[in-house]
Input
Amino acid sequence: MQLSKHLEGYDKDLVEVVLGIAEVTKAISRGFITHQGKADTSNLYGDQQAAMDVWADDLFIKELGGSGLVRYLASEEQPEILEFESDTDLAVSIDPLDGSSLLSVNLTVGTIVGIQRGGVLKPGSDMVGAMYVIYGPLTVLVYSVGDGVHEFVLHADGEFVLRKENFTIGSEKRLGQGAARNTYLPFHEEFISRLEADGYKIRFSGSFVADVHQILHKGGVFTYPGYLGSERGKLRLLFECAPMGYIVTQAGGAVSDGVVDLLSIVPESISERVPVYIGGKREIELIMGLPK
Ligand code: F6P
Ligand code: MN
Output
């Protein structure tokens, strides 16, 4: 079944946004060959931006801004929330190309999208939908509009075709862990020690979207914790953690900053960072229960 068919019956404006984003990701998936190389710019977080990041960001802004489909757009590559003329109140937050520092070694990167109504500075639990696309050996799109999690694969004819409907998080013991061990905070050290003692295998590529995708399918937990020198972690609440957390929660998993449900956190700014623990309920309950 094609993505457009699968989305039938949901709010028309929401469906059009999901399909519009899906169209851009097709162009991105074709563009890796033609847009190689680095641009000597950096975004407001100090990440080096590859030419591909900038190009992908531009495509999304043109598609979503020019379409009248969304009123607000926050992109990880832009310092301010963009506002467009639109009959809808849809608000999109987007990481156009997560993990892009790994493009130079040809590892999997992806696009992450959260969809809200009325504005982007809202808790993840208010989302009306979220999606991500993985550009790996295959281009895979995973979406939820609050009604389960579904996966599509891009076929040679340019269509996203259903691969897994209503799937739930796996049950294997896998662990993706960001930050350096000598900067771990004591409760995090305890968390990791307990998982290791329980036989968890390390699985970490350094591309958040791909790492969470693996955990979603196979099971376990991904964490990029707060650490010495950056107690609120590295990853962004709005562009990365909330949308992926919404999807994993929809698949029967959970997401936390270590203390509270991450989807309950109201962002104060688009650039807010957050420690993240995302995966199975068991693992998230373990970190939330450890004394801080
Ligand atoms: O977008 C940020 C990101 O590239 C994530 O995809 C990834 O989890 C993280 O940074 C890795 O950062 P570092 O290499 O600094 O640990
Ligand atoms: Mn990112």
About this structure: Residues 3-164 form a domain with the Fructose-1,6-Bisphosphatase; Chain A, domain 1 fold (CATH 3.30.540.10). DSSP finds seven helices and 15 strands in the chain. The pocket of 6-O-phosphono-beta-D-fructofuranose (ligand 1) is lined by residues 98-99, 101, 178, 206-208, 224, 234 (CB under 6 Å).
